[in-house]
Amino acid sequence: MITIVDSGAGNVRSVLNMFQRHGHDARVVTTAVEVAEASKIILPGVGAFDAGMAALRQQGLDEAIRNAVNNRGATLLGICLGMHLLFDGSDEGTTQGLSLLRGCVRRFPTAPHRLKIPHMGWNVVRNVRPSALLAEPDPDRRFYFVHSYYVDCVDQTDVAGVTEYGNEFTSVVHRGRICGVQFHPEKSHRFGAALLSSFVKM
Amino acid sequence: MLRARVIPCLLMNASGGLVKTVKFAQPKYVGDPINAVRIFNEKEVDELILLDVEASRAARGPDLSRIGEIVDEAFMPIAYGGGISELSQARQLVSLGVEKVIVNGAFIDRPELIRELADTIGSQGVVAAVDVGRDLLGRRRVFDHRRKRVTGLDPVELVRRAVELGAGEVFVNDVSREGTGKGFDLELVRAMSASVGVPVIVCGGAGEVSDLRAAVDSGASAVAAGSLFVYIGRHRAVMINYPTHARLKELFIGA
Fold this sequence. Notes:
The structure holds 2 protein chains of 2 kinds. Chain A is an alpha/beta fold. In chain A, 27% of the residues lie in helices and 30% in strands. In chain A, a hairpin with a 1-residue loop joins strand 11 (159-165) and strand 12 (167-175). Chain A is globular, with a radius of gyration of 15 Å. Chain B starts with a strand and ends with a helix. By secondary structure, chain B is an alpha/beta fold.
């Protein structure tokens, strides 16, 4: 059973829809008690860092998620803002994140490449370290990105995949039972479905 | 690397059917939107734009249950526009799974709507749409589709303002070329794309796949089209179609 956390700061319906369409049992939860029972947790998220953390804190979901992962062996996948919240903090805000991974979130610079911000559209991920999430070697593999911020990991061994936009940035993190993807697997056709299925099998 | 996006633009009428127009007029029924989205999903299109063309004119809001049904068929992002004039509508759309909300008429009336939307659902979820026509002196001006008239507003200034207010993307529709297949007005594409630092989607005039490349070379981050993906052949038979991923890669990234 996949547990999708709905803190009000993410789009859960599409995530739920993709799991169910591919035959995986999934449910949406809003309370700390429900997260406490979970063994596989998805943390979606869209919007600003501080608002995202505030939404989690309001329901005690931040502690519940940390507890589930650190003390009860749950696996966790953060998506987009959900991935950012795994880290210590963001240039965008002042709140502390979940600090399950070390590093912080930074904004894409507009110079020197004069790139459009947000980074929006289909891009590819280059595997840099083995991860169950990226095992499928489909040459057409691509994912939908939409973000203005990216994560800067303290520990490079947490970086499983990178993507090029101007420079290369971290697009997939994976450390033990904790993973995060910058893109939206629920909006990435069969490539996203394959990644979510890999998470189910972890 | 990031590839330019190619986006089918689907127009819905009041009864929820798909229609196609020419220069924003003569709507012709082309099919059921849920079926169309299913086919586009199978073809793994980059993204979809869904517009309820009559909602603003009829001063009614989005048809949420129909939109929900449509979005459930799509495993790619969908942007929806039509009749959005307040925050609660945007929140409901996002909770249905709509990736981005498109605002047009309402933001001409009340630009602060953009700021309110961006603060609530995030800039990346807010698309400022502008229809472009020409005034009697041939200058490009914003076209108000609800009142069916050219305004005195400069489209470049309007989209710059929208981005300052928090719009994360801009959608430019060329009224005079819509449905004609004559190709894009590349000078318009260039001017609009260069005016803001957010992605710009251009629409109106695509007649063949090479037009898409020309628009991107002029600075567009994405290209939208209606007729190109809904009709085929000289006699405009209705058939949903879309270039293969291999073709798009070849077109934009090179073989």
